[in-house]
Design brief:
The complex is a heterodimer. Chain A is α/β, with parallel strands linked by helices. Chain A has 14 helices and seven strands. Chain A has helices at 24-34, 38-49, 55-76, 81-85, 88-96, 123-133, 173-186, 205-216, 237-240, 246-252, 265-277, 311-322, 328-331, 335-342; strands at residues 114-117, 193-198, 222-228, 231-232, 235-236, 256-261, 283-288. Chain A has a five-stranded parallel sheet with strand order 1-2-3-7-6, with helices on both faces. Chain A is globular and about 50 Å long. The two termini of chain A are 37 Å apart. By secondary structure, chain B is of the alpha/beta class. Chain B folds into two domains: 9-178, Rossmann fold; 194-319, Rossmann fold. In chain B, helix 9 crosses helix 13. The radius of gyration of chain B is 19 Å and the shape is globular. The chains are: A alpha/beta, B alpha/beta. The interface between A and B is medium-sized, with 32 and 28 residues.
Amino acid sequence: MTADGLDLDERDAPSVIGEKCATDSDAATTAAAAASSPALDAAATAAASSPALDAATLRQRAAWIRRDILDMITRAKSGHPGGSLSAADIMATLYFGGILRHNPENPALPERDRFILSKGHAAPVLYATLAEAGYFPREELATLRKLGSRLQGHPDMHKLPGVEVSTGSLGQGLSIAAGLAYALRNRGESAQVFVLLGDGELQEGQIWEAILFAAHQGLGNLVAIIDNNGLQIDGSTDEISSLGAIEAKFRAFGWASHTTDGHDVAALHTALTQAKHYTDAPFALIAHTVKGKGVSFMENQCGWHGKAPSAEQCAAALVEVEQFCGPQEEQKEQPQQESKERLWQTGGAR
Amino acid sequence: MANGGRTMSDLKLRKATRAAYGETLVELLNEGVDIYAVDADLAGATTSAKLKAADATRHVNVGIAEQNMIGVAAGISLMGATVFTGSFAVFGTGRVYDQIRNTVCYANLNVKIAPTHAGISVGADGGSHQMVEDIALMRVLPNMRVLVPADYASTKAALRIAALTPGPFYVRMGRAEAEPIYPSIEGFALETTHVLRAGDDVSIIACGMEVHQALLAAERLAEQGLSAEVIDAFSIKPLDERTILDSVRKTGFAVTAEEHSVIGGLGEAVAALLAEHPGILRKPLRRIGVQDRFGTSGAFDELFAAYGLDATAIVSRVLQ
């Protein structure tokens, strides 16, 4: 694959995905069989033919997300930049790479895929992504953490469209995602559930209860993404309580699992496409990331887990991030308009 | 409200309140309610397994993993379903307090916390399994409603109210057989209590297994010329303040009785209410319950005597 081209049709099947994993073409057949509604077929076609699905555009979206994360946390004077920046490329690929079937015009669309941010403290990366996708006006990002804002310190499903469930207490999102996947399957729905977890979050015992449960129930419609940045508040995960071989652990628990570079949008797109099409068992994608990614003085520093930059620090950080944002004219385009063309469409359902 | 196909004679039998659980879930399913139950390896003991027998896809047994039980229930509820969680009260509330707080109540999800084996009436299993703090834990949570039924019939009613009212509920059930109080499951509602016996000298406000003890105590007090009014508090949150205030305005004397710690439960709820309406109590409030201690192994009736929860204890506290 080239750095700039993400042609779905040429995507090769990574054999590293797991022993049980089907080939890409098999997986695509399975996924096509599971997609019963014309809307989903149309979505697949639209997504595959979308010109926005190139790595350069995804990298630009990730840069926009990083810019907004820094700006909103600086304005709020509190928040969690490190774990938000580490997840920016994952979120850009999910929401703008045609992975997640969603529609900002109709956040409650029954057929939508669900995304759950289990590491709820990374709310800024979710808010930036949702605003960029057109779920709410970008200007509202400036209200983060303020009294009366829809942008709570941790995501609140009743306040902000696009937030599937309120999170914030670590360790609980995977159980919720598993319950949701169970109920979706029980109703014969083909929608899938994506959940983003922190690696430190895997220290919570409830996560392993949910891992056992999802494998036992054979929840092939569940994809867990681990933002594996290696750091937690008090230090590195290896210093505090080692997680060891995460991919091997998931496999030992009966999941399909694969490790990828969490900042390479092309690699992420390949892996997430594979995860999405794999329906024999739940799928864990371990995304190797750098906490604070994109801002040199924040990278790999656990001190930036939950601290807002000063105005000066933010300005310096923005210089680094904005070089990937593209020309000013392009950034001024209405994201809502773009999303209408680019994202999953629902035909006449609205 | 339907009688769930039960004959009136069934409601005259001594039955554990937990016996109503699985039966009511099946009745609700048959009535078309989009209902699920999630249990944690205690489906037989809680009786939720009856739902599994009726429709295995609607019963999820997560194994010995109570935290996951609450999370999975929350996830299922996001699809619009009504989801009950089980286990024993000690694990189904205390062990999963944060899951109930942050996932169920904070998001106001349609999850019903309905564990069994609450209180010291669990008996021989001892203090580790006798949950006497659950009402306190659940009552303090925003969005949570708390129902403590006294017998099999009122448990069926409580479960139906919980199932048919959106949002989080706690329904407290027990293991021991409970004396029948109500001849029917009709007439129960949120924020509604029943005056089971009218009286003028003292208001005994009880819940759960203590309702029967309060009725026994009222009979003995009558023999001594004291007229006791007995109220089944049933809906601890929201509390039926009007009925309680009307009664205490009449009697001027209130005694609460619960198979729960005197801290944080019915007694404190009534104490707070009466403190906000000064002048109606003519004697100090007396709170009967577990006095800030853990339970211990023993037979149900022995424990009720040892912990000052039986009718004899209520009579002596009233006469004190």
